[in-house]
Each structure stands twice: as C-alpha cells, then as structure tokens.
Amino acid sequence: MPKTIAAVTLPINPPSSSPFLTVPQIWAGLIIKCKEPQRFVAAMSDCRVTSESDTQIVRVITVGKDGMMGNPPGTELRERIDLVKPMKADFYMDNGTHISNIVSVGPKGSEDLYMTFTFDIVGPEGTDVEGEQANIEKTGLATVEHTIESIRGMVKEGTL
Length: 160
Fold this sequence. Notes:
By secondary structure, this protein is α+β, with helices and mostly antiparallel strands. Helix content is 26%, strand content 40%. It is built from 2 helices and 7 strands; from the N terminus they run βαββββββα. Strands 1-7-6-5-4-3-2 form a 7-stranded antiparallel beta sheet. The longest helix has 29 residues. The N and C termini lie far apart (40 Å). 24% of the residues are buried.
C-alpha cells in the first residue's frame, strides 16, 4: 500500500487575529474536533464516539459526499485517538493511517503558538503519491486554518 507523508503548520495567533487563543482554549477545541469532526473537516459527514477516557477517544466517522483519502462517500472508518494533553492528538485508523494535530510553542513562548497537522496516509494501490501529497498539503492547510478559526469562533460566541 502506498503511503503519503505531509505536514502543514500555521500560526494560531497572527497579529490580525482576535481574540487571542490560549493553550487551554485550543485544547478544548481539539477535544471538540475529536468528538464532532464534521464541524471542522468537510470530508466527514458524521461521527459516533464509541469510547472515551482522559487519554483516548475511539470513534467511527462517516466519509462525506466528496470522499476522503481514497474512501468513497458513506464509508465508515474507525479511529483511535490518543490524547496528550494539552499539546497533541494522534489519530490512528485501522488501515495504518496516522494523523497528528499538534500545538507547539515558538521562540516567543506562549504568545507564539502554532498548529501543525502531520499526515502519514496509507492509500489504495495505484495512488498517485505525488499528486496526493500536493492535495493533502492544500487541504491540510485549509483544515488547519478552519480548525483555528472554528475554535476562535467558539471563543467569540462564549461556547468554549
């Protein structure tokens, strides 16, 4: 099975952003993303959490209308998510795919936060790995940006 590897990073609090997001707010938002991914990832249409603890969530996601990672719409995928509070969520699919959502601190400390998504995706035979990598980088950046802005929106609304 071919593997596609990619990583994308964006600043969480660029100068034009408001409100400023803190690590606890970002972590709370990532937990919501783990339980309700369809609010953050357009390629997912539904999610059912089957077990949950402070360090792990197991869920079944349903692939949305445009498909996802070589899976057709309507496919159900089981994921185990290992939580490393407050900085990382590791998503493991049964097919060997591994995705990480990481919050990191830059040289200026807690005022200089970044969100990185890493992708180690196992695709079906015949996958155009080079084309898939470009696609993952493009959609990955959009997903990181949407995740940050969704969390910022929840903070603005007072729901986080």
